[in-house]
Amino acid sequence: MGKKKKQKKQEENYLDRIPQIKKEQWELLEDGLVEITVENTGFYNTLAQKLFKKPRYSFIKLDEYGSCVWQQIDGKKTIYEIGQILKNTHKEAGTQLYERLSSYFGILERNQYITFVNRDE
């Protein structure tokens, strides 16, 4: 019996991932903060809009750090590079910076605000 060769998966460092905004529905407000516009679609949202007068759009206003990060997402910069910009712009953001950024990008991805692109694209 021959030994099976174990293939090593080359694990990508999360900080080397390149985020890209999925939907361009956002604006920079006068106070310098970013506001994302989300359309409430789907059967239950439509039902709630008709029966309970729920709004068709939700407006999500990001805080100072989130706005800084959001404006750096261009499909070219890595999470690490965005973190360096945040750290240089907001000195107090340096505490557990990359742990927090990893969580933040995970939330953005789960809510389908961003996607990650390959370096080759």
What does this structure look like?
The protein is an alpha+beta fold and 121 residues long. The strands form two sheets. A three-stranded antiparallel sheet has the order 2-3-4, covered by helices on one side. It has helices at 43-52, 64-72, 79-89, 97-110; strands at 18-21, 26-28, 34-39, 57-61, 114-117. Helix 2 (64-72) crosses helix 3 and helix 3 crosses helix 4 (97-110).
* Series of secondary-structure elements, N-terminal to C-terminal: EEEHEHHHE
User: What is the helix tally?
Assistant: 4
Low-pLDDT residue intervals, each spanning 5 or more residues: 2-10
Average pLDDT taken over every residue: 88
Classify the helix fraction into a percent range: 25-40%
- How many E-type strands? 5
Q: What structural category characterises the helix and strand content?
A: alpha+beta
Anisotropy-based shape: globular
Q: Radius of gyration in whole Å, from Cα? A: 19 Å
Distance between the termini: 43 Å
β content, as a range? 15-25%
Largest sheet: 3 strands, antiparallel
What order do the strands of the largest sheet run in, or round the barrel if closed?
2-3-4
